[in-house]
């Protein structure tokens, strides 16, 4: 039978391409299990719940106090009793180099750094059926980078919990929970806009700009621009030369710089005979991309009445492009840095006209490109959140004094009205009358309690 099956197997394959198209099926073979089957057969489950606010670091890496992470890890036992050997949780930061030092090298591509480790169950423990909670907390220091995904590097924070149950038959299969945390950074916003002045020699054009230094991924922002010195009087030929704005283009450019480190295998060794440690090296990667741009051919106000009063004014609205992929400003200790700048390019052409007849304009054919760069910080919005150290409850010395206590009790009956108890304004004898009436009522009804 074994020989006949072996000899018939190739013929079945050839028959599949024939006119009948017979197909081979293996009804008794299974190539793995689905996730539902694996989860249902596990003797326990792992889940978590975060109790801290969103992880936002307020301020720059030098002054930020970090972000506080706290939550609970839930271990659900399905059986009546189950012995858990260990329960371990870790928080790590993973850096993935998309252009690594050495291609096709896993160690050069991925760098995993453990930030915190919780040994929730260190010794074997028999646990009853039900859900068991384990609290955890950690302070993410302010110098750590925020989560990002760029063409050069990807930074993510990974939380992993692993429980190993003890089983009688076969090796124990660990129960794993993996989650990804989103860590952001919010930089303070200046109340007053920045002011920049630029002169473009050899011309007399002077550009004055007011713009916000800090912007957010969502929202529109305005740059107020004014051009002066666009007209010049030529007294020899009695003409006025103008520089007229024909085209304006703005771009939001993002620049990413990172150092792709080399692993131990690809890093060179220096002075091994002297016993020195292996030196680390890396290669600098840099890339720029446009996350928003627009070209305008009109929309500004110009005045060419005279050579001294000529000017061009405009308010430029700019923002990130819709569905643009971006990374907020960041600078970490490993060399990763993300910066942004607003680029404004203006195309001006030279024209001249007689002083007495300014409407007779003649084009000279001379043009220039005026380019300006404005440093811009792209960061997340702070919202209504504040840093975790400012949310601390007040200490005992900061608690204000409590209101005064009421030592005198007043008893109300149907015989006494509110007018007889409250002292009238400007009357000094009402207080004694009300006190005597209250005492008489209390003496006549000793058993009444209100």
TrEMBL record:
Q: Which InterPro entries match?
A: Arrestin-like_C, Arrestin_domain-protein, LDB19_N
**Pfam families for this protein:** LDB19 (PF13002)
One Gene Ontology MF term:
protein-macromolecule adaptor activity
The Gene Ontology CC terms held by the record are: cytosol; plasma membrane
Where are the stretches annotated Disordered? 1-44, 429-450
Annotated LDB19 N-terminal domain residues: 91-269
- From start to end residue, where is composition biased (Polar residues)? 434-450
One Gene Ontology BP term is: ubiquitin-dependent endocytosis
What is the protein name stated in its UniProt record?
Answer: LDB19 N-terminal domain-containing protein
Q: Which organism is it from?
A: Corynascus novoguineensis
């Amino acid at each position: 039978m074994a020989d006949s099956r072996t000899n018939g197997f190739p013929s079945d394959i050839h028959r599949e391409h024939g006119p009948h198209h017979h197909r081979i099926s293996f009804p008794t073979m299974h190539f793995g299990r689905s996730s539902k089957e694996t989860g249902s057969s596990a003797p326990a489950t792992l889940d978590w719940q975060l109790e801290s606010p969103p992880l936002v670091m307020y301020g720059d890496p030098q002054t930020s106090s970090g972000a506080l992470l706290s939550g609970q890890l839930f271990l659900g036992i399905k059986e009546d009793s189950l012995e858990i050997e260990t329960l371990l949780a870790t928080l790590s930061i993973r850096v993935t180099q998309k252009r690594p030092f050495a291609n096709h090298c896993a160690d050069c591509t991925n760098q995993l750094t453990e930030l915190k480790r919780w040994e929730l169950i260190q010794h074997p423990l028999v646990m009853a059926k039900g859900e068991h909670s384990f609290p955890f907390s950690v302070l993410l220091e302010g110098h750590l980078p925020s989560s990002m995904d760029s063409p050069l590097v990807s930074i993510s924070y990974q939380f992993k919990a692993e429980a190993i149950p003890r089983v009688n038959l076969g090796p124990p299969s660990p129960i794993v929970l993996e989650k990804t945390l989103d860590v952001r950074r919010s930089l303070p916003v200046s109340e007053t806009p920045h002011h920049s002045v630029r002169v473009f020699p050899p011309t007399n054009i002077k550009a004055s700009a007011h713009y916000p230094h800090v912007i957010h991924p969502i929202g529109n922002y305005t740059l107020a621009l004014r051009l002066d010195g666009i007209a010049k009087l030529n007294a020899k030929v009695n003409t006025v030369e103008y520089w007229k704005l024909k085209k304006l283009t703005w771009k939001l450019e993002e620049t990413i710089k990172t150092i792709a480190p080399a692993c131990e295998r690809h890093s060179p060794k220096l002075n091994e005979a002297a016993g020195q440690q292996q030196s680390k090296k890396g290669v600098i990667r840099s890339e720029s991309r446009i996350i928003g741009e627009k070209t305008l051919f009109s929309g500004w106000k110009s005045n060419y009445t005279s050579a001294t009063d000529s000017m061009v004014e405009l308010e430029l609205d700019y923002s990130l492009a819709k569905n643009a992929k971006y990374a907020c400003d960041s600078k970490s200790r490993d060399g990763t840095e993300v910066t942004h700048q607003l680029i404004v390019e203006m195309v001006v052409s030279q024209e001249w006209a007689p002083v007495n007849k300014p409407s007779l304009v003649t084009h000279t054919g001379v043009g220039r490109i005026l380019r300006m760069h404005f440093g811009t910080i792209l960061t997340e919005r702070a919202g209504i959140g504040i840093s975790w150290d400012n949310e601390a409850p007040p200490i005992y010395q900061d608690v204000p004094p409590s209101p005064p206590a009421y030592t005198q009790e007043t008893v109300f009956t149907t015989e006494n009205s509110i007018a007889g108890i409250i002292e009238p304004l400007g009357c000094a004898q009402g207080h004694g009358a009300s006190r005597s009436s209250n005492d008489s009522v209390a003496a006549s009804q000793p058993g009444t309690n209100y």
